[in-house]
């Protein structure tokens, strides 16, 4: 059964005449008649009573007519949906990002994308880099921002930016402004993220390299909780610089070599990106350059 056959059949039903239907569709009348006969053979039933001056539908034709209209309408809707998707008037992007980026980089990127492509649906998954790699590999995301080093087999990685980690506190930590040293964390209780945060792992690794393990004032929070605990004066915390810039807390950079993390844009290496996801990738790259 072909859409063309159904279109010819509906035209005959509406106009009640093979010749008028052929003229309306700008096709030869014998061709139209042949297509309807082919449809009747395929369905195993006569669909049209052929009279000299007028054609009417058989019972089988009456049963087919509403279904044929629905099929043709769905086909037209499919064409429109594909056309709008290709022009980015419609579509969907599934983006994953760690919590620290969801409170810093991601809102600006989504705003820029939404301004350009208001008809595209945006879905965001907030999770740690390891979990995002797993979900992305399973095909449940189109793109993900992940912090390396993270084992990411089967994924294509593009370095997006490098971000310094800074020490935030409710009040200035030193009598005179200066940069912090890793050794300054030796006797200073920290507000520490839960396990699984890349910032936690980076902080602990830097402290171990300096020969000590830090003391925790509070341990186990998510990003918002950690910032609130710092604001309440429970201790200082090491956080990404882009996050610190939005908090109103006192941010103290570290001396060289600075604590730093690399943020990569990842997607499936063997899976072509949709037009909407490709456009999101371009917006992310533009943001990183700016």
TrEMBL record:
Superkingdom of origin organism: Bacteria
Sorted UniProt keywords: DNA-binding, Transcription, Transcription regulation
UniProt-listed Gene3D superfamilies: 3.40.190.290, Winged helix-like DNA-binding domain superfamily/Winged helix DNA-binding domain (1.10.10.10)
Domain HTH lysR-type: 1-58
Any one GO molecular function term: DNA binding
GO cellular component: protein-DNA complex
Any single Pfam family the record assigns to this protein: LysR_substrate
Keyword match Cytoplasm: no
Annotated family: Belongs to the LysR transcriptional regulatory family.
Name this polypeptide is given: LysR family transcriptional regulator
Species of origin: Streptomyces tateyamensis
């Amino acid at each position: 059964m072909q859409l063309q056959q159904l279109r010819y059949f509906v035209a005959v039903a509406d106009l009640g005449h093979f010749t008028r239907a052929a003229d309306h569709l700008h096709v030869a009348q014998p061709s139209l008649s042949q297509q309807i006969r082919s449809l009747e053979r395929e369905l195993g039933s006569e669909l049209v009573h052929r009279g000299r001056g007028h054609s009417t539908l058989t019972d089988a034709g009456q049963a087919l007519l509403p279904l044929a209209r629905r099929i043709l309408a769905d086909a037209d809707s499919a064409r429109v949906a594909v056309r709008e998707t290709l022009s980015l008037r419609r579509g969907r992007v599934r983006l994953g990002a760690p919590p620290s980026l969801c409170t810093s980089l991601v809102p600006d990127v989504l705003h820029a994308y939404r301004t350009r492509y208001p008809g595209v649906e945006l879905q965001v998954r907030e999770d740690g880099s390891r979990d995002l790699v797993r979900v992305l590999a399973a095909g449940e995301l189109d793109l993900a921002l992940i912090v390396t080093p993270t084992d990411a087999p089967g994924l294509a990685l593009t370095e997006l930016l490098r971000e310094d980690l800074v020490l935030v506190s409710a009040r200035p930590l030193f009598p005179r402004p200066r940069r912090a040293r890793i050794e300054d964390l030796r006797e200073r209780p920290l507000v520490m993220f839960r396990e699984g945060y890349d910032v936690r792992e980076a902080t602990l690794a830097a402290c171990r390299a300096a020969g000590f393990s830090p003391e925790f004032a509070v341990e186990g929070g998510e990003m918002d909780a950690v910032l609130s605990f710092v604001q309440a004066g429970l201790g200082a915390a090491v956080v990404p610089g882009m996050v610190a810039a939005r908090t109103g807390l006192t941010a103290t950079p570290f001396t060289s070599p600075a604590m730093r993390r690399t943020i990569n844009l990842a997607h499936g290496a063997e899976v072509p990106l949709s037009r909407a996801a490709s456009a999101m990738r371009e917006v992310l790259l533009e943001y990183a350059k700016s």
